[in-house]
Amino acid sequence: MSFLTSLVNGLSLGSIYAIIALGYTMVYGIAKMLNFAHGDFIMVGCYIIFTFVSTLKIGAVPGILVAIVLCTVLGVATERIAYRPLRHAASPLAVLITAIGVSYLLENAALLIFGADTKSFTSVIGWTGIDLFGGQLHIQGVTIITILASVVILVVLQAFIHRTRNGQAMLAVAQDQGAAILMGIDVNKTISLTFAIGSGLAAVAGALLCSAYPSLTPYTGAMPGIKAFVAAVLGGIGSIPGAMIGGLVLGIIEIFARTYISSQLSDAIVFGILVIVLLVKPAGLLGKITQEKV
Predict the structure, then answer these.
(1) What does the pLDDT look like over 85-144, one tens digit per residue?
(2) Which CA distances in Å does 200 have to 56, 64, 219?
(3) Which of 57, 268, 273, 278: CA 20 to 30 A from 237?
(4) DSSP string spanning the chain?
(5) Helix axes of 187-212 and 141-163: crossing angle, nearest 10 degrees
(6) pTM for the full model?
């Protein structure tokens, strides 16, 4: 049963990566910017939930709802203050430096408020799970909820993008911002909405991540954020289904690498996958190479 256990754990971890990668891929697909501070939004959401559950003893559901709202507001504020002034005039390097600055700001703010000590995160999912094959295979409740949540989020996002007015505006902005402006679409509002959705998803991913791996520090979101970016590139950054596929594939590869090769080499294998994908298929599994006309 070790193979099935590893597969289920890989799907669970991959689902978390997929939810995080959706934030990356939506922002890049529409605004053509990479928000490398996205992983720290996960950490912010986790600390908000931790405060509600462990410090204030209010409960997990209010904590998750408040975390989603505050992370959404944080994402919109970050786009408005840090990224919008750079969108047209700055080079990609300036955007990258700004993102790193935002990341350090959030991490150091968490250090000042909560300290550097590792916090024990209480799972927001009380369900212990189910036993299969006469008890030989136990699937934790957080694993099942995480996989189901990623599928539901994918379906809802796809429906939102293709069946709502705001979703159609996002597609138009992603296709051609100049033409979108001529059609009367508020590009700034559309991009802010994209940051809002991605940041809200980061809070959800944080709740699931820390429930599955119950330790919390100011750097909790850094590595999952980087790996989710790898997942977005693997699936084809800018593609919502690609982010889902990339996250699942990466999670399975990481868990199997830990189990059958080496836990110390698992991260190296994950980043090696990124190098191979960029060499063999630069656009990712579902991405498309676009040629700019001069």
Answers:
(1) 887 666 777 888 888 899 999 999 999 999 999 999 989 998 888 988 877 888 999 999
(2) 22, 10, 19
(3) 268
(4) -HHHHHHHHHHHHHHHHHHHHHHHHHHHHHH----TTHHHHHHHHHHHHHIIIIIS---HHHHHHHHHHHHHHHHHHHIIIIIGGGTTTS-HHHHHHHHHHHHHHHHHHHHHHH-SSPEEPPPS-----EEETTTTEEE-HHHHHHHHHHHHHHHHHHHHHHHSHHHHHHHHHHH-HHHHHHTT--HHHHHHHHHHHHHHHHHHHHHHHHHHS-EE-TTTTHHHHHHHHHHHHHH-TT-HHHHHHHHHHHHHHHHHHHHHT-TTTHHHHHHHHHHHHHHH-TT-SS----PPP-
(5) 170
(6) 0.93
